[in-house]
């Protein structure tokens, strides 16, 4: 085992194997929302690079360079969730842990999701008449091959939608030699079930409304709007309707049902032979809890499932006090990947 793997094993053994929410943080919505409100979006220095994709678009990535004194650093490739970016608080949290351990990372910004360096509210549009979706694995494949061609060996982490992409890619490429090991947080394994589940509560509708507020402007572009029924998209109030009238038609799917069926990672879990850690919470407001035992039963033996009773969606906030929070799952996945990186 490499030296970094040995260091990772030692730290991994020190990590609590069970999750206990911080005081006042037991509610799943508090777990989900708190970090977005309280955590900084600029924790580490990043070096930006713009790559030209095979179809002539631009893929914006942000690099965390390892210290020059680092001994055989490992490279991490990170993927954010829906409407996130390299500045999402959980990505910044992961990057800060990776930096603390003396390793390097590349945070991938999905097409249309990268933020302007001087204004994190402003997204950078991509060039092609499309953006991204839960089953889009071509850009990850392109980036993974680019990193390996540069001589880097890497592990990968995906959160939420990014985790669904990562697991789908692993299932599409059994026997692959690019990614040494992978880890995911709060994956919506069944996209259709998750979409319907969010419609069952007022807070679920709150999340959807927040996401649609940034998704809808992306399809108002003059190169995209003529390709869809723009009037119906403007009127959508659910993920299902948005995906039925925008995401699906733009990316080659018949409708929302076709998109969800072909893009859900649930159908690919049995083919994964790369070591992978999948962390989820039963109280995740983005996914019905009944999906989790199905995912675990479907998955191959290469997948290490960690399902906790609490944690919300990409939350997993522990610690002694609200102002001294610890992010259990972020620490866990980095430690686990260091152990399994050889």
Structure description:
This protein has 2 domains: 260 residues, Rossmann fold (3-Layer(aba) Sandwich), CATH 3.40.50; 73 residues, no CATH class. The protein has an 8-stranded mixed beta sheet, with helices on both faces. Strands 5-6 form a two-stranded antiparallel ribbon. It has a two-stranded antiparallel sheet with strand order 11-12. Helix 9 packs across helix 10. Helix content is 38%, strand content 18%. It has 12 helices and 12 strands.
Compose a concise summary of this entry.
The protein is built from twelve helices and twelve strands. It has 342 residues and is of the alpha/beta class.
Measured by DSSP, the beta-strand proportion falls in 15-25%
Widest beta sheet: strand line-up: 1-2-4-3-7-8-9-10
CATH-wise, what's the superfamily of the largest domain?
Answer: Alpha/Beta hydrolase fold, catalytic domain
The amount of helix comes to 25-40%
* First-residue to last-residue Cα separation: 6 Å
Supply the CATH class of the largest domain: Alpha Beta
Tertiary shape: globular
Secondary-structure-based class equals alpha/beta
Number of helices: 12
């Amino acid at each position: 085992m490499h030296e970094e793997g040995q260091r990772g094993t030692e730290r991994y053994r020190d990590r609590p194997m069970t999750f206990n929410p911080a005081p006042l943080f037991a509610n799943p919505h508090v777990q989900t929302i708190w970090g977005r409100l309280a955590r900084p979006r600029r924790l580490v220095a990043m070096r930006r690079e713009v790559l030209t994709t095979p179809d002539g678009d631009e893929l914006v990535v942000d690099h965390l360079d390892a210290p020059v004194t680092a001994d055989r650093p490992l490279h991490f490739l990170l993927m954010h969730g829906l409407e996130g970016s390299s500045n999402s608080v959980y990505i910044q949290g992961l990057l800060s842990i990776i930096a603390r351990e003396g390793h390097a990372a590349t945070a991938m910004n999905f097409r249309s999701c990268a933020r302007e360096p001087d204004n994190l509210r402003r997204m950078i549009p991509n060039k092609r008449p499309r953006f991204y979706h839960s089953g889009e694995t071509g850009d990850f494949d392109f980036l993974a091959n680019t990193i390996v061609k540069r001589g880097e060996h890497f592990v990968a982490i995906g959160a939420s939608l990014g985790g669904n992409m990562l697991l789908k890619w692993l299932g599409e490429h059994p026997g692959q030699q690019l990614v040494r090991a992978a880890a995911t947080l709060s994956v919506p394994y069944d996209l259709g079930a998750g979409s319907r589940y969010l419609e069952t509560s007022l807070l679920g509708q709150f999340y959807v409304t927040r996401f649609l507020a940034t998704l809808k402007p992306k399809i108002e572009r003059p190169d995209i709007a003529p390709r869809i029924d723009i009037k119906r998209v403007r009127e959508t109030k659910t993920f299902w309707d948005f995906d039925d009238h925008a995401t699906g038609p733009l990316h080659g799917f018949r409708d929302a049902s076709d998109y969800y069926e072909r893009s859900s990672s649930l159908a690919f879990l049995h083919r994964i032979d790369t070591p992978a850690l999948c962390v989820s919470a039963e109280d995740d407001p983005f996914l019905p809890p009944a999906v989790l035992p199905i995912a675990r039963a479907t998955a191959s033996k290469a997948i290490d499932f960690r399902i906790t009773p609490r944690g919300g969606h990409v939350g997993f906030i522990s610690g002694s006090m609200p102002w001294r929070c610890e992010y259990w799952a972020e620490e866990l996945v980095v430690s686990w990947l260091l152990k399994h990186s050889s």
